[in-house]
């Protein structure tokens, strides 16, 4: 069978500070990171994308191709089969792909943050081969270049190959524009509620995640400032601000029901 080199939505994601942290991390932290990557590559647990029902009432069972290597993740959705399932409606196809990707991105960010990592990435649409452990194509190169040269902070920035397509941008609740005018995925607002798998202990697990994250961010901000590591400090301070902004955009009653309060967050005040 001839390899399919086709147009795909493609994202490249990197764990910030991985090289430095991994050299001094203890074995339990390394094991947590390894389990995260293994679960992600097989779409297990909180990374499993179940069937979704979008605004047309049609169900989608589309799953992305995912490859992980070292601290990098490549995620792609081929456009042709998605468009076929959505009766060639690009608005619906774009909505479904962007919604599913942002859900997956949010889960990755929540799991990474729990063990002390921030994520950064780039996303585009272009030609890609992604199968049988091989990732090849212009789309991956562009997504990688956006992550390494443009995103700068813990965010996933969209290329003009996506933003120039109105069907992929209009009515998207998963996007936001940064202060520099670049489109990025808004994984900050749903981060808290995506931090645990639904079930009997969901509320307790959300509270535990939030408590751990507040401690991790607070500790990193203090230690990085004290050690003069300004590059790393800037990224954690940027994330702290966006995370708090995300909390401020949520319904306070929902946060309160999970024992989450802005009063417990001593950083990132955006006012």
Description:
The chain has 10 helices and 10 strands. Strands 1, 4, 5, 6, 7 and 8 form a 6-stranded mixed sheet that branches. A two-stranded antiparallel ribbon has the order 2-3. The chain has helices at 18-24, 27-41, 79-85, 90-114, 138-151, 160-163, 166-169, 202-227, 230-248, 252-257, and strands at residues 6-16, 52-53, 59-60, 65-69, 72-78, 118-131, 134-136, 156-158, 175-177, 183-185. 47% of the residues lie in helices and 20% in strands. It is globular. With 271 residues, it is an alpha+beta fold. Mean pLDDT is 87; it is low at 44-55. It has 2 domains: 6-185, Nucleotide cyclase, GGDEF domain (Alpha-Beta Plaits, 2-Layer Sandwich); 202-264. Strand 4 (65-69) and strand 5 form a beta hairpin.
- Count the E strands: 10
Estimated radius of gyration = 18 Å
| Terminal Cα span | 57 Å
Shape: globular
Mean pLDDT: 87
Task: Report the biggest beta sheet as strand number plus sense, adding barrel if it closes.
Answer: 6 strands, mixed
Q: How many structurally independent domains? A: 2
The top-level CATH class of the largest domain is Alpha Beta
Q: Roughly what fraction of the amino acids lie in strands?
A: 15-25%
Quickly give the CATH architecture of the largest domain.
Answer: 2-Layer Sandwich
Order of helices and strands: EHHEEEEHHEEHEHHEEHHH
- Alpha plus pi helix count: 10
Low-confidence stretches: 44-55
Q: Helical amount among residues, as a percent range? A: 40-55%
Q: How would you classify the helix and strand content by structural class?
A: alpha+beta
CATH topology of the largest domain: Alpha-Beta Plaits
CATH superfamily of the largest domain: Nucleotide cyclase, GGDEF domain
């Amino acid at each position: 069978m001839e390899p399919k080199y086709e147009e795909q939505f493609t994202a490249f994601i990197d764990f910030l500070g991985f090289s430095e942290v991994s050299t001094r991390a203890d074995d339990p932290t390394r094991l947590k990171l390894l389990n995260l990557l293994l679960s992600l590559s097989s779409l297990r647990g909180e990374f499993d994308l179940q069937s979704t029902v979008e605004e047309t009432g049609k169900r989608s069972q589309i799953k992305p191709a995912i490859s992980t290597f070292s601290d990098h993740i490549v995620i792609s959705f081929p456009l042709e089969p998605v468009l076929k399932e959505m009766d060639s409606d690009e608005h619906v196809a774009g909505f479904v792909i962007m919604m599913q990707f942002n859900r997956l991105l949010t889960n990755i960010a929540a799991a990474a943050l729990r063990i002390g990592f921030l994520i950064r990435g780039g996303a585009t649409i272009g030609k890609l081969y992604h199968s049988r452990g091989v990732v090849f194509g212009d789309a991956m190169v562009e997504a990688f270049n956006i992550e390494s040269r443009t995103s700068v902070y813990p965010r996933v920035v969209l290329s003009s190959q996506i933003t120039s397509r109105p069907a992929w941008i209009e009515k998207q609740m998963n996007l936001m524009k940064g202060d520099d005018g670049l489109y990025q995925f808004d994984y900050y607002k749903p981060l808290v509620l995506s931090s645990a798998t639904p079930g009997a202990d969901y509320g307790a697990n959300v509270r535990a995640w939030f408590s751990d994250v507040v401690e991790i961010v607070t500790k990193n901000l203090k230690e990085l400032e004290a050690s003069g590591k300004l590059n790393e400090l800037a990224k954690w301070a940027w994330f702290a601000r966006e995370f708090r902004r995300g909390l401020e955009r949520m319904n306070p009653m929902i946060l309160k029901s999970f024992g989450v309060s802005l009063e417990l967050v001593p950083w990132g005040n955006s006012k």
